Structures are given as structure tokens and as C-alpha cells.
Prior knowledge:
Elements (H helix, E strand, L loop, with lengths): L1 H31 L16 H7 L5 E2 L10 H18 L6 H6 L2 E2 L36 H20 L14 H6 L8 E5 L9 H6 L22 H5 L7 E5 L11 H7 L1 H12 L15 H5 L4 H9 L4 H11 L12 H14 L3 H8 L3 H19 L8 H6 L3 H7 L3 E11 L6 H7 E2 L4 E10 L5 E4 L3 E2 L4 H7 L11 E3 L7 H5 L4 E3 L12 H27 L22 H14 L9
Parallel strand pairs: 5-10, 10-11
Antiparallel strand pairs: 1-2, 3-4, 5-7, 6-7, 7-8, 7-9
Helix pairs in contact: 9-10, 14-16, 15-16, 16-23
Amino acid sequence: MHCAARRCVLKRSLLVQFLQLRSTFLFKSACMFIMVFCLIVGCGSRTGAAHKHREKVNFKLFRVPRVITGQGKYVEELTTDRRRQWISAISRADLSEEKLTNERVCGKHFVSGQPSKDWDKFNVDWVPSINLGHNKKEVAGTGAHRAERAKRSARRRKLREHAEPVVSKKVKRDPPEDLEQDQPENCPIEPVMVPASTEVLDAPEDLEQDQPENCPIEPVMVPASTEVLAAPEDLEQDQPENCPIEPVMVPASTEVLAAPDSEMETQTPSSSDKCTQTTEFAYLFMETKAVQDFTENYFTDCRDSDDRVRFYTGLPAFDTLKIIFDFVAPNVSRKTKTLTPFQEFVMVLVKLRLNPPQQDLAYRFNISQPTVSRVFWSWMIVMDIRLTPLIKWPEREAIIRTMPACFRDAFGSKVTIIIDCFEVFIERPSNLLARGQTFSNYKNHNTVKVLVGITPQGSICFVSRTWGGRTSDKHLTSNCGLLDKLKPGDLVMADRGFTIEESLALHQVKLAIPTFTRGSKQLDPADIEQTRGIANVRIHVERVIGQLKQKYTMLQGTLEIHYVSLTAGSTEPMVDKIVRVCSALANLCPSVVPFT
């Protein structure tokens, strides 16, 4: 009994599994042969080789764009707006989420045959725009109005067929001056009847000159619906029934004929006005050949060439930009075929100068965001190697020979270097040890600290590697390699926080810092004068650092964590290269220290 029951249960389970597998197979087979149709009303495009062969057009079907979330508020709003405009262009009452998911829109409804990218909002193919199967313009008038117009058209056709003379009220008009002068004395003038709403063109000069003398002018009668020189069709249809007819004087020998359509377009007033307007506004429909952004011509073919270079790169002139490019470019391997090497170089400088997001640079240069990152890193590595020699420690004789007057008056020719530190904000590291080492109590933020030294002439002559924001100025100065460059007899100028007299004394170097009160309420007069003299000239290092951070705003923002982290095969983070390159470029700009 138990064995039979088990066999029965086993058979039943196997049957259920077989039926499930069979239904799944049938469902998948049916899905393979489901045709996908175009959502546009009256289009009829669908998948299938037979339909494509009949259409003889290799078109594609495209999904209705979806709303993209998780990439920022701007991207979400942009894709939401695009999806809404697509649904509005499709304009079907039976639309549902299922149809929007399963059905497609074919390439017949796009000017270029396919939709544009999500970010290209101002492209004509951002939304389907042609062959939409509907017209959203409101039809003027009601059914009764259209019926009335049909009756008037039928009545005018009857009048045209019978061509019965129409007697109408004559309206006296002053003839043109040319007609009064050239008209023979004994030539009678009789009217030709045309509707009052119709404008009558002046007779051509050839017609006036070729007219024979003493020519009798006879009346030529035309129905109210017939016009001289065949007025346009829209004027003929909209002509009211009881339109008054005014007389127009023409010679009897002149034939009233319906000119061809091509000639009428140049003779009727409305057509001539349209032609004039088309000629006047033709520039609106012509494709203008604009200069591609950030090429060499973009900077040279304009009046404000140097201003444009200063704004985008921070360099003083285009000649300086071109010299640096020619010096660096031969050593850089290209990362994209879309941009020229000059555009890649300018893109790196724009990133340093204006610090736009990488996605913004991708939109500006029409490349992908990963390509922007690859181009930036490859160029920064080469620029660091080629431009770092511009940060040069000068010889003592050169410093003495070109010492500015403000330093010479206060300290003679002893000052060799003025040092100070500045900090750059970074993202908070996930590692707890790194987070503690980079947290700055002074800035109340995670930072990296850099020691900068300038000559009395205002050029940057020393840039240390980046240290954690928690590092003290004294420890940074003693371990960054600055002391090895000093010579006996040099004078280093610094702020109060640089208590490095002992370290400098080992190298026989003097330190000039503002005097401490050391517990007293007030400084001595001599100390006050000395402190005032130090402050007057030490301010220049703060001005240089301020100019450096204002000129290259990437040092003002918050750097992403991958700029601080070590990558595979590198011995220093990217932030070190960024600081050195910015300092080298700043040395190519005019100095902030006055020489007189």
C-alpha cells in the first residue's frame, strides 16, 4: 500500500513538472514571434523581415526613454522631461505603461533616422518630430461655417461657367500719374470690373510704351469671382458673396488671361511680399559654419584672444599657451580620436582653471566621462615632468642682483626665501587612520597641506609634497627637503607658527619671524618696527598663494579621494602633480611683487 501511494505521488509530481516545463516553453516560443509595432498613429512599422522587404527601408525601432535615477537630480529631471515630451508627441489616448514598455518608435519619425542622446536637449531629434499622424493645431470654424464656404465655392463655379456680365456700382478712382501723362487725348477709357478687395498692379513700363496711339479703350466685363492675372486660390475661396466691384481702366487690346502659376508667384502682391520676406530672413534657415570650440582658431579668430586665453587657461596670452603646448604635446600619447591634441591640452587647463565637473567637460567636448578622466591623468603626468623645472631655486647672485626695493630697504640683500603653508580640501577618507591624519583643526575639515616658498621677486621656487592636514608647520618644514637647499648666511622669512630656529641654526641660516610678546602686555618699540617691516614684505607670499588658488580654482574646491590615493605603479598621489603644475603655470604670469 505504501509503495503504491508513493508511486502515485511520484507520478503526479512528475506530471506537474512536465506541464510547467511545457507551459514555460510555449510561452517563450510565443514571445519569440510577438511582433513589435511602432507607437505612432497610422505608422504601421513593425518587426519582421517581410515588412522590411516590403518597405525597402532599413529602419530601426527605439524604446521610449525611461527616467534615469541615481545619477543626480539634473539627469533625473532631464530624462523625466524627455519622457513626457515623447508621450506628448505620440499623443495616443490608449497609452499605458505596458505599451510604453513593449512597443517602440521607428526611425521614420526622426530627421536623422534615430533619436539623439539624452543630454543633447537642443537637438531636433531629442523628441520625435515628423510623420506623427496627427495635427495638434485647432481647426478654425465649425461645421456650419465649412458648409457655408462650400456653398459659396459652388456658386462661384456656376458664375464662372456661365460667364454672365455683371453690372455693378462704379467707384471713381484717380488714375496713376504715369497713365495720365502717357494716355492719348481722344482715347476713351472704359471700366473693367474686378472685386474691390483685389489689389490691381501697376501696368509694366513695356506695356505703356508699346501701346498704339488713339487706341480705343473698351470695357471688358468679368464676373465677380474672376480676377485679373488670376489671384491666388486662398483669395478666391475667401471672397464674400456681395463683394462690391470697382472699375479698373485697361486698354481693350490687352487680354485678360490667367497667367501660369510660376509667373503669378512673381506678379501678385502677396507672392512678391513673401518672396521679399524669404530673402530677408533666409539667414535664419541657413546653416552657419561655426568655429569648433577650443581649437586654435577658437582663440585666434576673435578680437579678445588674450582675454579668452586668460579666462579658460589662466595664462597671460595665446603665444604663451602655444609655446607650452608645443613643449609638452610631443610626449603625450593620445587617448581619443575625437579631439585634437590641442583640445585635450586646453581641456586639462580648463579643469585646473575653472574646476568644472568631469560630466560638464564631457558635454562641452562631446566625449564620454571616462575619456575625460583618462585624458586628464595622461596629460598631468607629462606636464608634471616637463613643467616642474620652471619651479627653480635661484642662485644667490641672481637674487641679490634683482632684489626688489621693498626688501632691500628693510633687510638689505640677505632675504633668500619667504615660506608659508596652504591647505587644500579633500573628501573624507573611509580609512579611520587616514581620516585622523588629514583632519585639520584650523580648517575643521579633511585637508592636505603644502609648503610653498617664493623668492623676493615673487616667483615660486619651492613646492613640497602634500602632507596630511594634521601635520604641524614645524614638522613639515623640517622634513620636506627645504633645509637641504639653503646655504650658510641665507635669511628665511616666515610666520609665527614656523618655530624652526634650531633646525635652521644647524645649517647656519637665520630666521626672520614676527616677535612674540612672551608674556608681556606690549612689544618693545624696536620689536614693533621689526615686526612691521617683516609683515610688510612677508605679505607677498600670501598674495602669491592667493593668486595661485584664484587662478587655478581646482585648489579651492574639494578634491575627490582618488586624487589623494596612490594608484598602481605610482609613488605619489595625483594631488602632488596638480600642485606642481599649477605652481609652474603661475610662474609664467606677471609677478605680484613690485620691483620699484
